[in-house]
Amino acid sequence: MGQTGFSGSAKYVLDDELAKIVNISMVLEMPLLLKGEPGTGKTMLAHAIAETLRMELIILNVKSSMKLIEALYQYDTLTRLNDSRFGDSTRNVGNISDYIKMGKIGQAFVAEKRCVLLIDEIDKAETEFQDDMLDVLDQMQFDIIETDEVVKARQRPVIIITSNAKKDLSDPFLGRCNFHHIAFPDPKMMRNILNLHFPDINKRLVDRAIKTFYELRGIEGIEKKPATRELINWIRALGADPDFSDGDRLKKEIPYLGVLFKKSGDYHRSTSNLMKKRFF
Known about the structure:
Layout: H1 16-28, E1 32-35, H2 42-52, E2 57-61, H3 68-72, E3 73-75, H4 77-86, E4 100-102, H5 104-110, E5 116-120, H6 127-139, E6 141-144, E7 149-152, E8 158-163, H7 171-175, E9 178-181, H8 187-197, H9 203-217, H10 228-240, H11 257-260, H12 264-276
Helix pairs in contact: 8-9, 9-10
């Protein structure tokens, strides 16, 4: 893939299939839609691509009430009105362009160099927003109504779109993207991830922490299962505690559950489960 090839980064491990779909999406200049449960690394992939390929990363955090125009540009009518009243601005009140501010998609279009555009949690948006957005991304241009100006992309950005699969996406939307489902890492992949983050940590601690982590994720009724970031923070906590840094004590006691479980119900369910059942 030449200079655009991506095979992971110092802090991001990916399998061969994900590497292939990332690279072919960049070559074909198609958006890549990533699905998977929270914490599987969808958002971090965009960060890793931008860092590795030395591109600017522009992030559009999608909200349920968001209108497409907000992602393209905003016309600051209030500032223009104040400038016309008080007359102490360096802006030209007669020039509407001085009051046009690019949104995240607009910023990606006018960027001097090719960038990575992350459209995060697209499933929060209404179907109309999703389809209209992809129309803009297909055409690589949009109109500024107030100035009758057409903004054309200087170069097509690398587009990464994430979804937590909370709401189905339309068939037209799916048909215009490449797709990859990022499954939660299995213990072997998780060990590779942890080796990047903790190259010098006690191996026994990592072994016992991984086993305990997957046991805890498997507790029935857990609403928000701990993800990779929680495991990383949990291992940091264990490694900083002399009583647990060698991993042996995890056979008898599992501390810092509040690092893994962030919802009260999950926390109480995990502590209750541990009182009834001994892991290992």
